[in-house]
């Protein structure tokens, strides 16, 4: 696929030119230092059905290559209708011994004498009978992280929890010298839906045991910042000396027109419960990304880099019809990786430094002093950048910025208008990522037509054309 064939294709973000992509999954770094990123993938159509795990890898977080598929639906098995979301980590060989990994560390795992670190995927398997109630499955890979050597072992059946309306999306973390698993869930309590995170002991990854609840939706901080019918894709990672919990809000069809709502974060601490199992005690919260086209992120501790990285799923915008998506032959993309940090109790995202390798030539910024962009006055005044489509650029801003599509007929359609202070703006055909220094980012989709141009105006500091190295 080339730019002339599809002006909307985000070539810097997608490896696969065809098919459906959603949640990032199974992200880990193998012993050779190579990043492996899996994701929900339907190679046969642009619809969310019969989900496989697509797979790409990179040594630098910039240049990605397509790898063999990860887990795929297996007729007659617990994942016969789809391999849904989950995580990746380095574990001991499957001999029943406990792993000693850090919290989803992307670096090599220090095992016992002679115990190799095995790339391992933990995911939700759905059988087509009741897909809201998923089992936990485990797949082992070879040392390179590319070949499946032990597939689809059922580690946890659907637990017997009163009123359970859904459970899925396992996540694994270490606390108190032990390994724990959580799954997002929702329960019906007294005529209402309440989200919850069920807690499991999983010293042996292939045998999960339900031990209680990590967090219940009636917690006052959780209820304020992440009300939902079910929490999807829970991610629990240490950031800045605290624990950050990411939750994707899901709404039941009886209460919401659209089930996938938004992504929230809670900042808090892990504390010991009376039974010795951990509980999450949140103290603050907010929204991970305020854009309309961001969901189901995965956060990974990069132990080697001393940071926490996050990828999200950007779906096709609601202004895009299913017929248009079918015609283009592809749907969805992953965001660029972002580095997470805490500013007090507020979560911030920044572009990883590796993305600078995408910069090609600097782009000229033209004076636009006759145009008033609120908040863009001051040193440097208002300037603008005109981009031919498909626009692939990075823009560093000092303050207020607007992004517009200029039609061939002279019309202008506003895509983004914000005054969030200094920020980094990425444009990749139909995908826009705005990452301010001091507030939550915004991810959205927009679709220029043939002959359109993209105009960026405001308090712009620098800009670069983006392209893959060596292209």
UniProtKB/TrEMBL annotation:
It comes from the Bacteria. Residues 17-351 form the Glycosyl hydrolase family 32 N-terminal domain. GO terms for biological process: carbohydrate metabolic process. It holds the Pfam family Glyco_hydro_32N. SMART domains: Glyco_32. Keywords: Glycosidase, Hydrolase. GO terms for molecular function: beta-fructofuranosidase activity. Its EC number is 3.2.1.26. PANTHER family: BETA-FRUCTOSIDASE. Belongs to the glycosyl hydrolase 32 family. This is beta-fructofuranosidase. It comes from Brachybacterium paraconglomeratum.
């Amino acid at each position: 696929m080339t730019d002339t064939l599809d002006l909307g294709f985000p070539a810097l973000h997608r490896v696969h030119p065809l098919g459906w992509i959603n949640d990032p999954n199974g992200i880990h770094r193998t012993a050779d230092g190579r990043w492996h990123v899996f994701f929900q993938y339907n190679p046969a159509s642009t619809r969310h059905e019969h989900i496989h795990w697509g797979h790409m890898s990179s040594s630098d977080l910039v240049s990605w290559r397509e790898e063999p598929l990860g887990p795929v639906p297996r007729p007659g098995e617990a994942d016969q209708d789809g391999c849904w979301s989950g995580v990746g980590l380095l574990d001991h060989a499957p001999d029943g011994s406990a792993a000693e990994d850090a919290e989803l560390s992307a670096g090599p795992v220090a095992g016992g004498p002679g115990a190799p670190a095995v790339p391992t995927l933990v995911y939700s398997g759905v059988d087509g009978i009741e897909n809201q109630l998923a089992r936990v499955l485990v797949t082992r890979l070879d040392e390179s992280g590319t070949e499946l050597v032990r597939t689809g072992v059922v580690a946890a059946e659907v637990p017997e929890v009163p009123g359970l309306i859904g459970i899925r999306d396992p996540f694994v973390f270490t606390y108190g010298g032990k390994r724990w698993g959580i799954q997002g869930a929702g329960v019906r309590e007294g005529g209402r839906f309440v989200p919850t995170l069920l807690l499991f002991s999983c010293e042996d990854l292939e045998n999960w045991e339900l031990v209680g609840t990590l967090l219940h939706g009636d917690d006052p901080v959780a209820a304020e910042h992440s009300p939902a019918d079910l929490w999807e894709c829970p991610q629990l990672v240490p950031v800045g000396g605290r624990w950050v919990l990411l939750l994707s809000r899901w709404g039941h069809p009886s209460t919401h027109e659209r089930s996938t709502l938004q992504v929230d974060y809670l900042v808090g601490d892990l504390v010991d419960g009376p039974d010795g199992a951990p509980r999450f005690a949140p103290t603050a919260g907010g929204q991970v990304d305020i854009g309309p086209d961001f969901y189901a992120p995965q956060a990974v501790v990069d132990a080697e880099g001393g940071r926490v990285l996050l990828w999200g799923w950007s779906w096709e915008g609601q202004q895009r019809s299913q017929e248009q998506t079918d015609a283009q032959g592809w749907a969805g993309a992953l965001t660029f990786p972002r580095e997470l940090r805490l500013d007090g109790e507020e979560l911030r995202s920044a572009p990883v430094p590796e993305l600078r390798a995408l910069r090609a030539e600097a782009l000229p910024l033209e004076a636009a002093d006759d145009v008033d962009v609120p908040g863009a006055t001051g040193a440097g005044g208002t300037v603008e950048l005109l981009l031919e489509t498909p626009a692939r650029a990075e823009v560093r801003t000092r303050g207020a910025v607007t992004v517009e599509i200029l039609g061939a007929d002279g019309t202008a359609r506003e895509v983004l208008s914000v005054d969030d202070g200094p920020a980094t703006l990425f444009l990749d055909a139909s995908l826009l990522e705005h990452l301010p220094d001091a507030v939550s980012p915004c991810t959205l989709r927009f679709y220029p037509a043939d002959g359109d141009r993209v105009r960026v105006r405001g308090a712009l500091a620098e800009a670069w054309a983006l392209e893959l190295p060596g292209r």
